[in-house]
């Protein structure tokens, strides 16, 4: 754990300030204020930070990194294919649901979590 802390401190220290926000709170903020556009650099930073933290046994939960990575990858794909804002928002919800479903082996709970926490709306289109 000590080596993991030192490595994590080095990763955070060497990264830019804009890449440091992570987790569920960051995903909700980007979904609400930026139409679901998550920067790929931030997602990459989240991946390596979570990898070091979880591999070294630090007390980091798996739901925050899972949600951020699922939402970040789906947002990046939407940006890559130049999809409209509503499609990117839907993709972020799908990425979040997939991450929670895969992380805890509960696919329906992942969908309900994404609709309740991330998307904050219950529509038939969003559910399907």
UniProtKB/TrEMBL annotation:
Pfam families: Voltage_CLC. SUPFAM superfamilies: Clc chloride channel. Keywords: Chloride, Chloride channel, Ion channel, Ion transport, Membrane, Transmembrane, Transmembrane helix, Transport. Its main location: membrane. It is a multi-pass membrane protein. One of its GO terms (molecular function) is chloride channel activity. It is found in: Membrane. The keyword Cell division does not apply. The keyword Transport applies. One of its GO terms (cellular component) is chloride channel complex. Coiled coil: none annotated. CDD domains: Voltage_gated_ClC (cd00400). This is Chloride channel protein. It comes from Oceanospirillum linum.
């Amino acid at each position: 754990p000590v080596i993991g802390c030192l490595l994590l401190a080095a990763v955070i220290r060497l990264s830019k300030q804009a890449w440091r926000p992570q987790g569920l709170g960051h995903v909700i903020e980007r979904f609400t204020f930026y139409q679901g556009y998550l920067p790929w650099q931030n997602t990459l930073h989240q991946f390596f930070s979570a990898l070091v933290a979880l591999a070294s046994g630090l007390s980091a939960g798996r739901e925050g990194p899972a949600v951020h990575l699922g939402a970040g990858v789906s947002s990046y794909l939407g940006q890559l294919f130049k999809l409209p804002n509503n499609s990117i928002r839907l993709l972020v919800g799908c990425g979040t649901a997939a991450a929670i479903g895969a992380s805890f082996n509960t696919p329906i709970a992942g969908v309900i979590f994404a609709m309740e926490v991330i998307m904050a709306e219950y529509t038939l289109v969003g559910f399907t």
